[in-house]
Amino acid sequence: MDSTIDPRCTHARAITTGAAKANRAVLNNLITLYSKSNLPSHAVRVFQSIPSPNVVSFTALLTSAFSNSPLSAFRHFISMIRRQILPNGHTLTSLLKTCASLPALTFGLQLHSLAIKLGFSSEPFTASALVSLYFKTGLSGNAKRVFDEMSVRDEVCFSSVIVGLARNSKPMDALSCFVEMRRSGVASTMVSVSSTLRAASDVAMLEQCRIIHGHAMVTGLNLNVIVGSALIDGYGKCGLLGNARGVFDELEMELNIVGWNAMMAGHAQQGEHGNVIELFTLMEERGMVPDEYSFLAILTAFYNAGLVEETEIWFRRMTEEYSLEPCLEHYTCLVGALGKAGRLEEAERIALSMPFKPDAALWRVLLSKCAYHVNMDIAWRMSDRLLHINPMDDSAYVILANAYASAGRWDEVREVWKRMKDKKVRKEGGKSWIETHGEVHVFLAGDRRHERADEIYAKLADLMEEIEKLGYVPVWAEMLHEVEEKEKKKALWYHSEKLALAFGLLNGTTPPGKALRIVKNLRICRDCHEAFKYISRLIEREIIVRDVNRYHRFLNGSCNCGDQWMVGILMWILIIF
Question: Contact at 8 Å (CB) between 439 and 508?
């Protein structure tokens, strides 16, 4: 076998020439070679043959242990310290990566202290490993402090921070860090670009995705498979499937299963099951083996399209034909589809008998189905199960109260709100945002902080008056019936998504004819959904709303969800990096 492929040939040659006996540097290199070739036992034997191992020897051994037996890396490190051999920057970097993989925060904190004493904490590789450790353990503030204290920041350092911020649900900070990196003259990498795309797509910032796409084209990173998959995922999450498909077609022959799953997920969140199945079939024809995420996209597509039988069929195919074990997310799709069809008892039975402990998301989906079908007995049980998981879960109260309101049981509505108040549970506030000219404008319900607030409210009043002439009737169903009509109308008019829409229609905000794209942190309310259908007809423009559940495309007086928005349809976001 070629010695460049098998390190055992290199080792044999070193033995026959005598180099392995007298040269510690040769033995250190052999440890590294065995480590890279995934032969840890050979690496340990070589290490044990070194009469006086130095810090390089231990570092090579620690690297081998990190990839095969993380806990043994700690034992080797303690052995090194007992021999009074101090670690270098590479040693600490390897150990910090081990701490991040476990994770082992306590040991990592001690390593950070040691790195400070030895003067390695601000060096790029060690600092980047510290940043990754702190982000993976949820200590974003610690990670940012380490980054701020670094003397030299290279592309590895910036990439670590951008990845960490994106994964810790800090998309705006991740985007700001990417901008800072470019201003500092640090080159972009596939990691920094793909993670920035993920951050932009998490908040559906289409213009930012396009800007980063342009940057990737200038740097040549758009042809990288990881960046390409991130672009597909980003455009898909922004609801621009044409752009996603353009990137997909350009890289189709190079893409792996991740890129294909991202394209399928984009169609799935729109309920375009035909396109998802077409991609699935083509993927198999190319010789790729579908995985759990492939089937999650399929189940989500049928679920969002309201096709319960197809959801059941493909759930069975996943296990029977492809020998894949469904995860909690797959069961949630099935339970949701059954509940949507009114088979609430069957859905509850599957949730209780599946091989996973149901999480809050599953019970929340089933609760929303009970509210839709006004089945208060099961709804009450689902609400209790949600509160058992998290007593401060506001959705358990809100959805139950809405269900009682739909049934006209106002005394129970008041009782639910009283329980919520007594428990000091606060309802999450509605928040919507719209991106114009690369800037994000955020609105709360009844928000008057925007510099163009007077124009926004005047525009909204005009819109509401015009759509009433077209036949729009306010939806009062979820509001207490004794509230005066004037107060009800005022409360409904000033919802955050309506304010964002009115701002998007002001002069100079968005080009005429361009689709208006709004993101909301909660489910779009019933009245706003109805109003947006009429407004799309009035202004003859497409309105796209991404709420917490799915995409809604309003055009010519109708929505692509088929008015099934309140069923609590899920939009599964595939984490592909």
Answer: no
Q: Which residues contact 564 (CB under 8 A, 6 or more apart)?
A: 306, 340
pLDDT tens by residue, 24-38: 777 777 777 877 777
Highest mean pLDDT among 78-82, 314-318, 369-373, 492-496: 314-318
- The predicted model scores a pTM of 0.82
What's the gap between Cα 113 and its chain centre?
32
The CA–CA distances, whole Å, from 423 to 391, 392, 397, 414 equal: 8, 8, 11, 14
Asked whether the predicted pLDDT for residue 178 surpasses 90, the reply is yes
Instruction: State the burial class of residue 382 (Cβ atoms within 10 Å of its Cβ: 0-12, 13-18, 19+).
Output: buried
H or E element in which residue 3 lies? none
Q: Which two tokens stand for residue 163?
A: 């990845």
DSSP string computed for 460-512 = HHHHHHHHHHTT-----TTS-TTS-HHHHHHHHHT-HHHHHHHHHTSTTTS-T
Which residues are CB-neighbours of 233 under 8 A, at least 6 positions away? 197, 198, 201, 244, 262, 265, 266, 574, 576
**Residue reference for tokens 């910036």:** 158
Long-range contacts of 414-418 (CB under 8 A, 24+ apart): 414/480
Q: How many residues does the chain have?
A: 577
Q: How far apart are CA 90 and CA 35, in angstroms?
A: 15
Average confidence score pLDDT of the chain:
87
Closest to 203 measured CA to CA, from 180, 171, 245: 171
Is residue 184 exposed (0-12), middle (13-18) or buried (19+ Cβ within 10 Å)?
Answer: exposed
Q: What is the pLDDT of residues 101-128, one digit of tens each?
A: 888 899 999 999 999 999 998 888 899 9
- For 177, other C-beta atoms within 10 Å of its C-beta total 25
In sequence order, what DSSP letters do the residues of 164-197 get, joined into one string?
HHHHTT-HHHHHHHHHHHHHTTPPP-HHHHHHHH
Q: From the CB of residue 347, how many other CB atoms can be counted at a distance below 10 Å?
A: 24
| Euclidean distance between the first and the last CA atom of the chain, given in angstroms as a whole number | 36
Say which residue, 402 or 16, is predicted with more confidence. 402
Residues 6 or more apart from 460 whose CB is under 8 A from it?
Answer: 493, 494, 498, 499, 501, 502
Is 254 strand, coil or helix? coil
Contact predicate 363/382, CB 8 Å: yes
What pLDDT score was predicted for residue 152?
85
Partners of 434 in beta bridges: 441, 518
Tokens of 253: 């022959």
In the DSSP assignment, the letter for residue 523 is P
d(CA 154, CA 124) in angstroms, rounded, equals 7
Strand 551-555 and strand 543-546: the pairing is: antiparallel
Amino acid at the residue 251: L
